[in-house]
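Severity: low
Component: inverse-folding endpoint
Summary: output formatting inconsistent between runs
Steps to reproduce: submit the following structure tokens with default settings.
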């Protein structure tokens, strides 16, 4: 399916900036229509059913249309780091990761490259590629663009960052984040969730939806609202991953003092206990010291 014409007047993300990315102009995502990748390697730090023992074949795309003030991948989200590649090269990267033993192909921050990714997947499948594709995204998508991925993506791994429009405006300049997260996740669940969920014999997810929530310091009530919404809406049709790995990047405390620290064990325990109390069973939690910069990979063009 060739839908690259969308890039002529780009509306891939909710910001709908309308830039002609095919002419070398950059959109809200900071990218032209040329695919830029900063790392393609086995990644061990995803949920157990994604990484497993062999690792997830993570392809980190440069650029991002959301632009959270606390982004841990700022080296690539602004589009400066990375290497420009062709669609055929992206396809070959899929096969190279498969040869390394990857459980899946993990497309990280892929929204602004949907047309190119679809072309690369078509190319790979024409060569009998077999691994499942994981769509690892911010939650700031439109349901219409997620519909284009129907039949291409096997596992959706979106964030649900904010329930409060005020918080999403403050930290991501996107007061419409909650409404788009709700709509896009609904479409993801329609495609891959519920009774469609399945795992292989090694416990690796082959189809399904895992919604992640990164808990922020001092915003426990908003986190509880997200967990409540997800469970009340989807029950066991999805998995919920509650993450404690928030890492304050240098200088964030100058703009937002409340974000200048990691979350405390008691904050995290309260959120996890809350999830259990309301009935969440299909879930993942993090244990130990995860809020370290060592969990942020080197964006050094490995594998690109």
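Observed output (run 2 of 3):
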């Amino acid at each position: 399916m060739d839908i690259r014409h969308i890039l002529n007047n780009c509306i891939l993300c909710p910001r709908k900036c309308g830039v002609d990315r095919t002419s070398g102009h950059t959109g809200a995502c900071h990218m032209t229509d040329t695919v830029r990748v900063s790392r393609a390697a086995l990644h061990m730090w995803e949920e157990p059913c994604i990484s497993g023992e062999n690792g997830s074949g993570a392809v980190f795309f440069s650029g991002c249309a959301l632009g959270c003030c606390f982004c841990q991948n700022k080296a690539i989200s602004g589009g400066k780091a990375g290497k420009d590649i062709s669609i055929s090269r992206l396809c070959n990267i899929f096969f190279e990761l498969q040869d390394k033993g990857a459980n899946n192909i993990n497309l990280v921050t892929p929204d602004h490259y949907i047309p190119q990714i679809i072309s690369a997947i078509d190319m790979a499948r024409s060569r009998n590629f077999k691994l499942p594709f994981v769509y690892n995204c911010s939650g700031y998508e439109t349901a219409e663009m997620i519909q284009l991925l129907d039949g291409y993506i096997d596992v959706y791994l979106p964030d649900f960052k904010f329930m409060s429009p005020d918080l999403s405006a403050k930290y991501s300049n996107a007061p419409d984040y909650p409404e788009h997260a709700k709509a896009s996740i609904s479409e993801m669940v329609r495609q891959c969730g519920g009774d469609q969920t399945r795992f292989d014999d090694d416990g690796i997810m082959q189809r399904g939806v895992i919604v992640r929530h990164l808990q922020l310091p001092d915003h426990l009530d908003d986190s509880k609202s997200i967990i409540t919404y997800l469970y009340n809406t989807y029950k066991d049709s999805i998995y919920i991953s509650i993450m404690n790995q928030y890492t304050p990047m240098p200088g964030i405390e100058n703009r937002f003092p409340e974000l200048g620290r990691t979350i405390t064990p008691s904050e995290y325990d309260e959120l996890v206990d809350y999830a259990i109390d309301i009935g969440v069973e299909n879930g993942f939690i993090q244990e130990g010291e995860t809020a370290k910069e060592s969990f942020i990979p080197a964006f050094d063009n490995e594998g690109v």
